[in-house]
Amino acid sequence: MASSPSPSAARALLVLAAAALVLSSVSAAAGSPPLAKGLSFDFYSAKCPQAEAIVFSFLKDAVRKDVGLAAALLRIHFHDCFVQGCDGSVLLDKTNGVDSEKVSPPNVTLRPSAFKAINAIRALLQRACGGPVVSCADIAALAARDSVHLAGGPRYAVPLGRRDGLAPASLDTILGALPPPTSKVPVLLSFLAKIGLDADDLVALSGAHTLGIAHCGSFEERLFPKEDPTMNKWFAGHLKLTCPRLKVDNSTANDIRTPDVFDNKYYVDLLNRQGLFTSDQDLHTDAGTKPVVTRFAVDQGAFFDQFVKSMVKMGQINVLTGNQGQIRSDCSLPNAARSSAGDELPWSVVEAAESFVL
Ligand code: HEM
Ligand SMILES: *[C@@H]1O[C@H](CO)[C@@H](O)[C@H](O)[C@H]1NC(C)=O
Ligand SMILES: CC(=O)N[C@H]1CO[C@H](CO)[C@@H](O)[C@@H]1O
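C-alpha coordinates predicted for Peroxidase (358 residues):
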Protein backbone atom coordinates (compact mmCIF):
# COMPACT_ATOMS: atom_id res chain seq x y z
CA MET A 1 0.00 0.00 0.00
CA ALA A 2 3.04 2.19 -0.13
CA SER A 3 2.00 3.72 -3.46
CA SER A 4 -1.56 4.75 -2.48
CA PRO A 5 -1.89 7.85 -0.30
CA SER A 6 -2.79 7.50 3.37
CA PRO A 7 -6.27 8.71 4.38
CA SER A 8 -4.83 11.90 5.85
CA ALA A 9 -2.76 12.57 2.73
CA ALA A 10 -5.87 11.99 0.60
CA ARG A 11 -7.77 14.46 2.75
CA ALA A 12 -4.97 17.00 2.35
CA LEU A 13 -5.11 16.51 -1.40
CA LEU A 14 -8.85 17.04 -1.41
CA VAL A 15 -8.48 20.22 0.60
CA LEU A 16 -5.83 21.42 -1.84
CA ALA A 17 -8.01 20.62 -4.83
CA ALA A 18 -10.93 22.43 -3.27
CA ALA A 19 -8.72 25.43 -2.54
CA ALA A 20 -7.52 25.44 -6.14
CA LEU A 21 -11.10 25.37 -7.37
CA VAL A 22 -12.05 28.28 -5.15
CA LEU A 23 -8.99 30.22 -6.26
CA SER A 24 -9.60 29.66 -9.95
CA SER A 25 -13.25 30.61 -9.69
CA VAL A 26 -12.25 33.74 -7.79
CA SER A 27 -9.75 34.83 -10.42
CA ALA A 28 -12.15 34.01 -13.25
CA ALA A 29 -14.91 35.97 -11.56
CA ALA A 30 -12.90 39.03 -10.46
CA GLY A 31 -16.04 41.08 -10.89
CA SER A 32 -16.28 40.40 -14.62
CA PRO A 33 -18.87 38.42 -16.58
CA PRO A 34 -18.05 35.03 -18.14
CA LEU A 35 -16.11 35.01 -21.41
CA ALA A 36 -17.81 34.54 -24.76
CA LYS A 37 -17.94 30.87 -25.72
CA GLY A 38 -14.73 29.86 -27.51
CA LEU A 39 -12.55 32.64 -26.09
CA SER A 40 -9.91 32.10 -23.41
CA PHE A 41 -6.95 33.96 -21.95
CA ASP A 42 -4.52 31.16 -22.86
CA PHE A 43 -5.84 30.40 -26.34
CA TYR A 44 -2.39 30.51 -28.00
CA SER A 45 -0.35 29.12 -25.09
CA ALA A 46 0.18 25.83 -26.94
CA LYS A 47 -0.08 26.95 -30.59
CA CYS A 48 2.02 30.12 -30.39
CA PRO A 49 3.17 30.89 -26.85
CA GLN A 50 5.30 33.85 -27.92
CA ALA A 51 2.42 35.64 -29.71
CA GLU A 52 1.72 38.31 -27.12
CA ALA A 53 5.43 39.06 -26.60
CA ILE A 54 5.88 39.56 -30.35
CA VAL A 55 2.99 42.01 -30.58
CA PHE A 56 4.27 43.96 -27.60
CA SER A 57 7.87 44.18 -28.70
CA PHE A 58 6.89 45.39 -32.17
CA LEU A 59 4.58 48.06 -30.78
CA LYS A 60 7.03 49.19 -28.13
CA ASP A 61 9.37 50.42 -30.85
CA ALA A 62 6.69 51.59 -33.25
CA VAL A 63 4.76 53.62 -30.66
CA ARG A 64 7.98 55.17 -29.38
CA LYS A 65 8.55 56.49 -32.91
CA ASP A 66 4.94 57.60 -33.42
CA VAL A 67 2.59 57.83 -30.46
CA GLY A 68 -0.21 58.56 -32.94
CA LEU A 69 -0.04 54.91 -33.89
CA ALA A 70 -1.36 54.01 -30.42
CA ALA A 71 -4.45 56.15 -31.00
CA ALA A 72 -4.97 54.76 -34.47
CA LEU A 73 -4.77 51.13 -33.30
CA LEU A 74 -7.13 51.72 -30.41
CA ARG A 75 -9.69 53.22 -32.76
CA ILE A 76 -9.38 50.35 -35.23
CA HIS A 77 -10.32 47.79 -32.58
CA PHE A 78 -13.34 49.94 -31.63
CA HIS A 79 -14.56 50.16 -35.22
CA ASP A 80 -13.91 46.46 -35.73
CA CYS A 81 -16.01 45.47 -32.72
CA PHE A 82 -18.90 47.89 -33.23
CA VAL A 83 -19.38 46.96 -36.89
CA GLN A 84 -20.60 43.34 -37.24
CA GLY A 85 -18.51 42.16 -34.28
CA CYS A 86 -14.77 41.90 -33.60
CA ASP A 87 -14.02 39.85 -36.71
CA GLY A 88 -11.20 41.84 -38.29
CA SER A 89 -13.46 42.98 -41.10
CA VAL A 90 -12.42 46.59 -40.56
CA LEU A 91 -9.02 45.53 -41.90
CA LEU A 92 -10.32 44.32 -45.25
CA ASP A 93 -9.65 46.29 -48.39
CA LYS A 94 -12.52 47.24 -50.61
CA THR A 95 -13.31 44.06 -52.59
CA ASN A 96 -15.65 43.51 -55.55
CA GLY A 97 -17.05 46.99 -55.34
CA VAL A 98 -18.31 46.45 -51.78
CA ASP A 99 -17.43 49.34 -49.49
CA SER A 100 -15.34 47.99 -46.66
CA GLU A 101 -15.22 49.53 -43.21
CA LYS A 102 -11.79 50.82 -44.22
CA VAL A 103 -12.99 53.12 -47.00
CA SER A 104 -16.44 54.15 -45.76
CA PRO A 105 -17.54 57.48 -44.31
CA PRO A 106 -16.86 57.31 -40.58
CA ASN A 107 -13.70 55.40 -41.36
CA VAL A 108 -11.75 57.27 -43.93
CA THR A 109 -9.70 58.83 -41.16
CA LEU A 110 -8.50 55.48 -39.84
CA ARG A 111 -4.75 55.85 -40.27
CA PRO A 112 -2.88 53.83 -42.92
CA SER A 113 0.01 53.42 -40.45
CA ALA A 114 -2.24 51.29 -38.22
CA PHE A 115 -3.29 48.96 -41.05
CA LYS A 116 0.37 48.60 -42.00
CA ALA A 117 1.39 47.87 -38.42
CA ILE A 118 -1.24 45.14 -38.09
CA ASN A 119 -0.08 43.44 -41.27
CA ALA A 120 3.52 43.75 -40.16
CA ILE A 121 2.71 42.11 -36.82
CA ARG A 122 0.78 39.49 -38.77
CA ALA A 123 3.88 38.62 -40.80
CA LEU A 124 6.08 38.37 -37.70
CA LEU A 125 3.56 36.08 -36.00
CA GLN A 126 3.19 33.95 -39.10
CA ARG A 127 6.92 33.37 -39.18
CA ALA A 128 7.22 32.66 -35.46
CA CYS A 129 4.14 30.43 -35.23
CA GLY A 130 4.78 28.51 -38.45
CA GLY A 131 1.80 29.81 -40.45
CA PRO A 132 -1.45 31.68 -39.97
CA VAL A 133 -2.30 30.81 -36.37
CA VAL A 134 -3.21 34.13 -34.76
CA SER A 135 -6.28 35.81 -36.25
CA CYS A 136 -6.26 39.40 -37.46
CA ALA A 137 -9.14 40.15 -35.09
CA ASP A 138 -7.00 38.96 -32.15
CA ILE A 139 -4.04 41.00 -33.40
CA ALA A 140 -6.28 44.08 -33.45
CA ALA A 141 -7.43 43.37 -29.88
CA LEU A 142 -3.86 42.83 -28.63
CA ALA A 143 -2.57 45.89 -30.48
CA ALA A 144 -5.26 48.06 -28.89
CA ARG A 145 -4.43 46.65 -25.45
CA ASP A 146 -0.70 47.28 -25.84
CA SER A 147 -1.30 50.74 -27.31
CA VAL A 148 -3.25 51.80 -24.25
CA HIS A 149 -0.50 50.56 -21.97
CA LEU A 150 2.37 52.04 -24.00
CA ALA A 151 0.65 55.43 -23.94
CA GLY A 152 0.50 55.35 -20.13
CA GLY A 153 -2.76 53.51 -19.48
CA PRO A 154 -3.59 50.24 -17.72
CA ARG A 155 -2.44 46.84 -18.97
CA TYR A 156 -5.02 44.08 -18.93
CA ALA A 157 -5.49 40.48 -20.06
CA VAL A 158 -7.30 40.02 -23.38
CA PRO A 159 -9.44 36.95 -24.04
CA LEU A 160 -8.33 35.39 -27.35
CA GLY A 161 -9.61 32.97 -29.94
CA ARG A 162 -11.50 35.30 -32.29
CA ARG A 163 -11.73 34.18 -35.92
CA ASP A 164 -11.67 36.48 -38.94
CA GLY A 165 -14.81 37.30 -40.91
CA LEU A 166 -15.03 36.47 -44.60
CA ALA A 167 -16.60 39.65 -45.92
CA PRO A 168 -16.45 43.37 -45.33
CA ALA A 169 -19.48 45.11 -43.83
CA SER A 170 -21.89 46.95 -46.10
CA LEU A 171 -22.10 50.71 -45.97
CA ASP A 172 -25.55 50.49 -44.33
CA THR A 173 -24.17 48.18 -41.64
CA ILE A 174 -21.36 50.60 -40.94
CA LEU A 175 -23.59 53.65 -40.75
CA GLY A 176 -26.04 51.78 -38.52
CA ALA A 177 -23.29 50.72 -36.13
CA LEU A 178 -21.09 53.77 -35.59
CA PRO A 179 -22.77 56.81 -34.05
CA PRO A 180 -21.76 60.16 -35.55
CA PRO A 181 -19.84 62.60 -33.31
CA THR A 182 -22.83 64.98 -33.46
CA SER A 183 -24.85 62.50 -31.34
CA LYS A 184 -26.06 63.21 -27.83
CA VAL A 185 -26.19 60.67 -25.02
CA PRO A 186 -29.64 59.14 -25.72
CA VAL A 187 -28.62 58.40 -29.31
CA LEU A 188 -25.22 57.08 -28.24
CA LEU A 189 -26.89 54.81 -25.68
CA SER A 190 -29.28 53.46 -28.30
CA PHE A 191 -26.33 52.52 -30.52
CA LEU A 192 -24.53 50.84 -27.60
CA ALA A 193 -27.63 49.02 -26.34
CA LYS A 194 -27.82 47.10 -29.64
CA ILE A 195 -24.48 45.47 -28.81
CA GLY A 196 -24.98 45.00 -25.08
CA LEU A 197 -23.06 48.02 -23.80
CA ASP A 198 -24.42 50.41 -21.15
CA ALA A 199 -23.93 53.96 -19.88
CA ASP A 200 -20.83 53.10 -17.80
CA ASP A 201 -19.30 51.53 -20.91
CA LEU A 202 -20.15 54.64 -22.93
CA VAL A 203 -18.47 57.03 -20.51
CA ALA A 204 -15.41 54.82 -19.97
CA LEU A 205 -14.85 53.91 -23.63
CA SER A 206 -15.24 57.52 -24.72
CA GLY A 207 -12.22 58.11 -22.48
CA ALA A 208 -10.20 56.66 -25.38
CA HIS A 209 -10.45 60.21 -26.71
CA THR A 210 -7.66 60.99 -24.25
CA LEU A 211 -5.50 60.04 -27.25
CA GLY A 212 -5.33 60.99 -30.90
CA ILE A 213 -6.68 63.61 -33.22
CA ALA A 214 -9.81 64.68 -35.04
CA HIS A 215 -10.40 66.53 -38.28
CA CYS A 216 -12.36 69.77 -38.48
CA GLY A 217 -15.29 68.00 -40.15
CA SER A 218 -15.91 66.01 -36.97
CA PHE A 219 -16.70 69.07 -34.82
CA GLU A 220 -17.09 72.10 -37.12
CA GLU A 221 -20.86 72.14 -36.59
CA ARG A 222 -20.06 73.30 -33.04
CA LEU A 223 -18.20 76.36 -34.36
CA PHE A 224 -20.20 77.46 -37.42
CA PRO A 225 -22.49 79.18 -38.18
CA LYS A 226 -22.48 79.97 -34.46
CA GLU A 227 -20.56 78.63 -31.49
CA ASP A 228 -22.15 75.87 -29.44
CA PRO A 229 -23.04 77.60 -26.14
CA THR A 230 -22.00 74.49 -24.19
CA MET A 231 -18.43 75.00 -25.44
CA ASN A 232 -15.96 77.05 -23.41
CA LYS A 233 -15.42 80.38 -25.24
CA TRP A 234 -11.65 80.31 -25.09
CA PHE A 235 -11.65 76.73 -26.37
CA ALA A 236 -13.90 77.68 -29.31
CA GLY A 237 -11.47 80.46 -30.20
CA HIS A 238 -8.57 78.04 -29.92
CA LEU A 239 -10.28 75.55 -32.27
CA LYS A 240 -10.96 78.31 -34.78
CA LEU A 241 -7.22 78.77 -35.19
CA THR A 242 -7.14 75.24 -36.58
CA CYS A 243 -10.52 75.35 -38.34
CA PRO A 244 -11.07 79.01 -39.33
CA ARG A 245 -14.16 78.26 -41.42
CA LEU A 246 -16.29 75.35 -42.63
CA LYS A 247 -14.62 72.60 -44.71
CA VAL A 248 -11.00 73.22 -43.78
CA ASP A 249 -8.94 70.03 -43.93
CA ASN A 250 -6.98 70.28 -40.69
CA SER A 251 -6.81 68.42 -37.41
CA THR A 252 -6.43 68.99 -33.68
CA ALA A 253 -5.87 66.95 -30.52
CA ASN A 254 -8.85 65.16 -28.96
CA ASP A 255 -7.57 65.95 -25.45
CA ILE A 256 -6.18 69.45 -25.17
CA ARG A 257 -4.45 68.83 -21.82
CA THR A 258 -2.33 65.70 -22.43
CA PRO A 259 -2.93 64.72 -26.07
CA ASP A 260 -0.39 61.87 -26.14
CA VAL A 261 -0.93 60.34 -22.72
CA PHE A 262 -3.57 57.79 -21.80
CA ASP A 263 -4.88 59.35 -18.57
CA ASN A 264 -8.11 60.80 -17.15
CA LYS A 265 -7.56 64.38 -18.39
CA TYR A 266 -10.25 63.87 -21.06
CA TYR A 267 -12.81 64.02 -18.23
CA VAL A 268 -11.16 67.15 -16.84
CA ASP A 269 -11.61 68.65 -20.32
CA LEU A 270 -15.32 67.81 -20.16
CA LEU A 271 -15.67 69.45 -16.72
CA ASN A 272 -14.15 72.57 -18.28
CA ARG A 273 -16.48 72.38 -21.30
CA GLN A 274 -13.49 71.65 -23.50
CA GLY A 275 -14.72 68.37 -24.96
CA LEU A 276 -14.20 68.25 -28.72
CA PHE A 277 -17.28 66.47 -30.09
CA THR A 278 -20.91 66.89 -29.14
CA SER A 279 -20.75 63.18 -28.25
CA ASP A 280 -17.95 63.95 -25.77
CA GLN A 281 -19.32 67.09 -24.14
CA ASP A 282 -22.85 65.75 -23.81
CA LEU A 283 -21.55 63.07 -21.41
CA HIS A 284 -21.11 65.95 -18.95
CA THR A 285 -24.32 67.78 -19.91
CA ASP A 286 -26.56 64.72 -19.61
CA ALA A 287 -27.74 64.27 -16.02
CA GLY A 288 -27.51 60.49 -16.29
CA THR A 289 -23.84 60.27 -17.27
CA LYS A 290 -22.51 63.43 -15.55
CA PRO A 291 -21.81 61.74 -12.18
CA VAL A 292 -19.62 59.14 -13.90
CA VAL A 293 -17.69 61.85 -15.78
CA THR A 294 -17.08 63.68 -12.51
CA ARG A 295 -15.95 60.50 -10.76
CA PHE A 296 -13.46 59.64 -13.53
CA ALA A 297 -12.15 63.24 -13.58
CA VAL A 298 -11.15 63.04 -9.92
CA ASP A 299 -10.22 59.35 -9.74
CA GLN A 300 -8.02 57.99 -12.50
CA GLY A 301 -8.00 54.54 -10.91
CA ALA A 302 -11.79 54.36 -11.17
CA PHE A 303 -11.55 55.30 -14.85
CA PHE A 304 -8.86 52.69 -15.55
CA ASP A 305 -10.85 49.94 -13.77
CA GLN A 306 -14.02 50.63 -15.74
CA PHE A 307 -12.12 51.16 -19.00
CA VAL A 308 -10.54 47.70 -18.71
CA LYS A 309 -13.89 46.07 -17.96
CA SER A 310 -15.55 47.87 -20.86
CA MET A 311 -12.73 47.09 -23.31
CA VAL A 312 -12.85 43.39 -22.45
CA LYS A 313 -16.63 43.53 -22.93
CA MET A 314 -16.34 45.43 -26.22
CA GLY A 315 -13.70 42.96 -27.38
CA GLN A 316 -16.21 40.10 -27.21
CA ILE A 317 -19.05 41.62 -29.23
CA ASN A 318 -20.38 39.09 -31.76
CA VAL A 319 -17.08 37.25 -32.06
CA LEU A 320 -16.59 34.36 -34.46
CA THR A 321 -15.00 31.33 -32.76
CA GLY A 322 -14.35 27.62 -33.26
CA ASN A 323 -14.80 26.74 -36.92
CA GLN A 324 -16.52 29.97 -37.90
CA GLY A 325 -14.78 32.35 -40.30
CA GLN A 326 -11.08 31.82 -40.98
CA ILE A 327 -7.57 32.82 -39.94
CA ARG A 328 -6.55 35.25 -42.64
CA SER A 329 -3.06 35.00 -44.07
CA ASP A 330 -3.23 38.67 -45.07
CA CYS A 331 -5.27 40.93 -42.84
CA SER A 332 -6.46 43.07 -45.75
CA LEU A 333 -7.84 40.21 -47.90
CA PRO A 334 -10.06 37.22 -47.20
CA ASN A 335 -8.16 33.99 -47.93
CA ALA A 336 -10.60 33.08 -50.72
CA ALA A 337 -9.64 36.22 -52.62
CA ARG A 338 -6.00 35.16 -52.72
CA SER A 339 -5.43 33.40 -56.01
CA SER A 340 -2.15 31.52 -55.74
CA ALA A 341 -0.96 32.00 -52.20
CA GLY A 342 -1.23 28.34 -51.24
CA ASP A 343 0.26 27.56 -47.87
CA GLU A 344 3.36 29.59 -48.43
CA LEU A 345 3.96 32.87 -46.78
CA PRO A 346 2.91 35.51 -49.32
CA TRP A 347 5.76 37.85 -50.22
CA SER A 348 3.65 40.92 -49.73
CA VAL A 349 3.19 39.90 -46.11
CA VAL A 350 6.88 39.24 -45.54
CA GLU A 351 7.72 42.56 -47.10
CA ALA A 352 5.18 44.35 -44.93
CA ALA A 353 7.22 43.40 -41.86
CA GLU A 354 10.59 44.05 -43.39
CA SER A 355 9.76 47.42 -44.87
CA PHE A 356 7.72 48.79 -41.99
CA VAL A 357 8.58 52.44 -41.61
CA LEU A 358 6.63 55.22 -39.96
C1 HEM B 1 -19.03 56.83 -28.43
C2 HEM B 1 -19.00 57.14 -29.67
C3 HEM B 1 -17.80 57.60 -30.43
C4 HEM B 1 -17.82 58.55 -31.38
C5 HEM B 1 -19.03 59.34 -31.86
C6 HEM B 1 -16.47 58.68 -31.86
C7 HEM B 1 -16.09 59.55 -32.86
C8 HEM B 1 -14.79 59.77 -33.23
C9 HEM B 1 -14.41 60.71 -34.26
C10 HEM B 1 -15.36 61.52 -35.11
C11 HEM B 1 -13.05 60.74 -34.28
C12 HEM B 1 -12.16 61.62 -35.14
C13 HEM B 1 -12.14 61.22 -36.58
C14 HEM B 1 -11.41 62.30 -37.35
O1 HEM B 1 -11.99 63.38 -37.49
O2 HEM B 1 -10.26 62.07 -37.77
C15 HEM B 1 -12.58 59.82 -33.29
C16 HEM B 1 -11.26 59.57 -33.02
C17 HEM B 1 -10.83 58.60 -32.15
N1 HEM B 1 -11.62 57.71 -31.46
FE1 HEM B 1 -13.62 57.81 -31.27
N2 HEM B 1 -15.66 57.83 -31.17
C18 HEM B 1 -16.42 57.14 -30.31
C19 HEM B 1 -15.98 56.12 -29.47
C20 HEM B 1 -14.69 55.66 -29.42
C21 HEM B 1 -14.27 54.46 -28.73
C22 HEM B 1 -15.20 53.50 -28.02
C23 HEM B 1 -12.91 54.36 -28.89
C24 HEM B 1 -11.97 53.31 -28.40
C25 HEM B 1 -12.21 52.54 -27.37
C26 HEM B 1 -12.50 55.52 -29.65
C27 HEM B 1 -11.20 55.82 -29.97
C28 HEM B 1 -10.81 56.90 -30.74
C29 HEM B 1 -9.43 57.29 -30.92
C30 HEM B 1 -8.21 56.67 -30.24
C31 HEM B 1 -9.42 58.35 -31.82
C32 HEM B 1 -8.20 59.07 -32.39
C33 HEM B 1 -7.74 58.34 -33.63
C34 HEM B 1 -6.48 58.89 -34.27
O3 HEM B 1 -5.85 59.79 -33.74
O4 HEM B 1 -6.12 58.37 -35.34
N3 HEM B 1 -13.60 56.27 -29.98
N4 HEM B 1 -13.66 59.23 -32.67
C1 LIG C 1 -4.20 74.30 -39.35
O1 LIG C 1 -4.03 74.45 -37.96
C2 LIG C 1 -2.87 75.12 -37.54
C3 LIG C 1 -2.88 75.15 -36.01
O2 LIG C 1 -3.20 73.91 -35.51
C4 LIG C 1 -2.87 76.54 -38.10
O3 LIG C 1 -1.67 77.20 -37.75
C5 LIG C 1 -3.03 76.48 -39.61
O4 LIG C 1 -3.18 77.79 -40.12
C6 LIG C 1 -4.28 75.68 -39.97
N1 LIG C 1 -4.43 75.58 -41.42
C7 LIG C 1 -5.44 76.15 -42.08
C8 LIG C 1 -5.49 75.87 -43.55
O5 LIG C 1 -6.30 76.80 -41.57
C1 LIG D 1 -15.41 62.67 -41.95
C2 LIG D 1 -15.03 62.34 -43.35
O1 LIG D 1 -13.89 62.53 -43.73
N1 LIG D 1 -15.98 61.84 -44.12
C3 LIG D 1 -15.75 61.42 -45.49
C4 LIG D 1 -15.75 59.93 -45.54
O2 LIG D 1 -15.67 59.43 -46.85
C5 LIG D 1 -16.67 59.86 -47.70
C6 LIG D 1 -16.48 59.14 -48.99
O3 LIG D 1 -16.51 57.75 -48.76
C7 LIG D 1 -16.64 61.38 -47.82
O4 LIG D 1 -17.68 61.82 -48.66
C8 LIG D 1 -16.78 61.98 -46.42
O5 LIG D 1 -16.64 63.38 -46.47
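The pocket of 2-acetamido-2-deoxy-beta-D-glucopyranose (ligand 2) is lined by residues 241-242, 244, 248, 250 (CB under 6 Å).
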